[in-house]
């Protein structure tokens, strides 16, 4: 009985010590997807200037470890913009638009890692999963 109790305690300690991301259902579970109206408005102005567009609507964001991916509609095209720092203080380092098939997740991940050097692996995984399988989630 004493060994069982120690084993159970050890399992509980390990389970609670493991980051929540270890138990995630999708690659985006540990990515900050929160988006306030204030951020939308501020980013829309800055991004419209960067894209030389009259108007931009910020649709979604994905943030992790100082990086931000912002999904925008410029009313000419929808695109994902990749920022290695604050979008209000820096220009995007990569842009992706278009459609992706469900079987292209690995290709999209490789594209992301190549074109957004330094992006956290978890954020690249999230993006690749999202555009291939997660848009409806």
What key phrases describe this protein's structure?
alpha+beta, 4 helices, 137 residues, 4 strands
Structure description:
- 41% of the residues lie in helices and 18% in strands.
- The radius of gyration is 19 Å and the shape is globular.
- The protein has helices at residues 2-17, 37-51, 105-115, 121-134; strands at residues 57-64, 67-73, 78-83, 94-96.
- By secondary structure, it is an alpha+beta fold.
- Helix 3 runs antiparallel to helix 4 (121-134).
Average pLDDT level: 87
Total number of helices: 4
* Helix/strand order: HHEEEEHH
The major sheet is characterized as:
4 strands, antiparallel
Number of domains: 1
Q: Per DSSP, what share of the residues sits in E-state strands of 2 or more residues?
A: 15-25%
Q: Which outline best applies?
A: globular
Biggest sheet: strand arrangement: 1-2-3-4
**Which stretches of 5+ consecutive residues score pLDDT under 50?**
10-18
Q: What Rg, in angstroms, do the CA atoms define? A: 19 Å
Number of strand segments: 4
Helix content: 40-55%
In quaternary terms, these chains amount to: single chain
Please report the distance between the alpha carbons of the first and last residues. 45 Å
Report the structural category.
alpha+beta
């Amino acid at each position: 009985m004493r060994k069982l109790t120690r084993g159970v305690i050890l399992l509980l300690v390990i389970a609670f010590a493991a980051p929540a991301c270890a138990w995630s259902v999708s690659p985006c579970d540990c990515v900050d997807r929160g988006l306030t109206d204030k951020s939308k408005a501020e980013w829309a102005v800055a991004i419209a200037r960067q894209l030389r567009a009259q108007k931009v609507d910020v649709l979604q964001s994905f943030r992790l470890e100082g990086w931000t991916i912002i999904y925008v509609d410029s009313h000419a095209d929808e695109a994902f913009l990749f920022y290695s720092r604050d979008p209000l203080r820096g220009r995007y380092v990569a842009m992706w638009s278009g459609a992706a098939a469900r079987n292209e997740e690995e290709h999209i991940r490789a594209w992301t890692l190549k074109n957004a050097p330094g992006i956290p692996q978890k954020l690249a995984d999230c993006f690749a999963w999202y555009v291939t399988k997660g848009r409806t989630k």
